[in-house]
Amino acid sequence: MERTVTTDSANTEDRRRALRQAFGSFATGVTVVTARDGQGAAIGFTANSFTSVSLDPPLLLVCLAKSSSNLASFSSTPRFAVNILSDAQKEISNRFASKTADRFAETEWRDSAGGVPLIDGAVAWFDCITDNVIDAGDHVILLGRIADFSHSDARPLAYLRGHYLDLGLAEAAADSVSHHGGVRVGGLLDCMGQVLLRKTPDGWALPMGDVRAGFREARAALETSLAGQGIAAETGLLYSVFDAPSGNATWMIFHGEMEHAALEPDLRLFPVDDLPLQEIAVPQIRSILRRYQSEIRQARFGLYVDDARNSGQIHAIDQRATPWTKFITEQES
Hints:
The chain is an alpha+beta fold. It folds into 2 domains: 12-160, Roll (Pnp Oxidase, Chain A); 166-332, Nucleoside Triphosphate Pyrophosphohydrolase (Alpha-Beta Complex), CATH 3.90.79.10. The protein is built from 7 helices and 21 strands. Strand 9 and strand 10 form a beta hairpin. The protein is elongated. Residues 319-333 have low confidence and may be disordered.
């Protein structure tokens, strides 16, 4: 769903909020930028506004808000490091984004050859000599010349629209179901706070593609089906994986967004809080939609997995897995 906000909007705060959301549509890695202050103490902050700049000479940049308490120290430091966090380091990301007094106290780290802190277990790190500090609106840009670096094959921590993404979980779920009698992909599609449902002889259902031998073919089948009905949609995160009611395939439900359009008679958009749950044909889909209502209110999402290795668990994007039976008990009590 495309949302256009003009730069001359009357409400500046609304425009800033919309712009932040638009920037958040770009999935990024997560870094902790470290240095030492004028007294030699280790300092650092979490940042996803990081990018490579040049290979020759080797340059990178990271942005720091002018409102940061670390602004003076990082603007004057001769050296800093960028640590790209792994998907096992969410707590470190949160710690260095908080107002915790000593962010290094519970963090395993060491000094680089250049004397700046490096986070143990990071996917990659770059020890940099400050090349320039550039004023840029409400931020400053730290341009660093890379003096030393290291990297590994670990999976990086990813961030999108205010949430961590568990890339490894989605990959494992897709791999685990790709050989169990076929795959069928469906879409939990949002259109300005409404969910698209299809009317079937048995009741309402999510739009689904045909069963295919593998995950990629099944996802393509859903996209082809939607396009054939004039629905412009983008499927994003994997939201639920479970055995089909008939037992002859695995269903994978993806969350996504769609543009508003004229719909065929058997399709209808329902407000999230007004979904016809009692008229949903498939019990598993009814459970998915009930969970979706709850997660929309909390703005915290997870991936439900029900297979031989991960039976009936919700793996939250930024929390530990929640047993499905516990979730249902809480929702229905």
